[in-house]
Specification:
This protein is 42% helix and 16% strand. The protein is an alpha+beta fold and 161 residues long. The chain folds into 2 domains: 48 residues, no CATH class; 73 residues, His-Me finger endonucleases (His-Me finger endonuclease fold). The termini are far apart.
């Protein structure tokens, strides 16, 4: 049951009836992407909001289970998505730096974590090293600009009054 319409010179096929993915009711979708009837959302819980809420609950339960089996699960995802770095590569980098900050050589870890911060070039995305909390925020405040850092160094070298 398809209806062919013309929209701004383009031929568009609109489905006349669909079966709701949540409750099985046959409904008339407003768009081809609509998968839920949404007509009785307040009564039976069908519709977009219920679907998203249920999916989020399922995801939370799955993540809790994965965290219980692997405490570093979220850390692995974060490193891979943000820096394209595996947890093993992170630990190798940490051992190469002798488990200290690449700048100040302190063993201070990140705020509320047991990990150092991964420093990376914002332009290229390449990882430069691991930093403590203070050095990471310091570089961030100087916007990774060498001329500003050199100006700060010159300022610190000035004689005091």
């Amino acid at each position: 049951m398809k209806d062919t319409r013309f929209k701004k010179g383009h031929k568009t096929t609109i489905v006349k009836e669909k079966v709701c993915a949540m409750c099985g009711v046959i409904f008339k979708p407003k768009t081809n992407r609509q998968s839920f009837c949404g007509g009785h959302a307040n009564k039976s819980g069908c519709g977009w909001k219920h679907s998203i809420k249920k999916r989020n609950q399922n995801n939370k339960a799955l993540i809790k289970k994965k965290i219980a089996n692997d405490p570093d699960f979220l850390r692995r995802i974060h490193l891979k998505q943000k820096y394209n770095l595996t947890l093993e590569q992170y630990f190798i980098l940490s051992m190469e730096q002798e488990n200290v900050c690449a700048i100040c050589k302190s063993k201070e870890t990140g705020y509320q974590t047991n990990y150092m911060y991964v420093d990376h070039d914002h332009a290229t995305g390449k990882v430069r090293g691991l930093l403590c909390n203070k050095c990471n925020f310091g570089l961030g405040n100087f916007k990774d600009k060498i001329n500003i850092l050199e100006s700060a160094i010159n300022y610190l070298k000035k004689e005091r009054i």
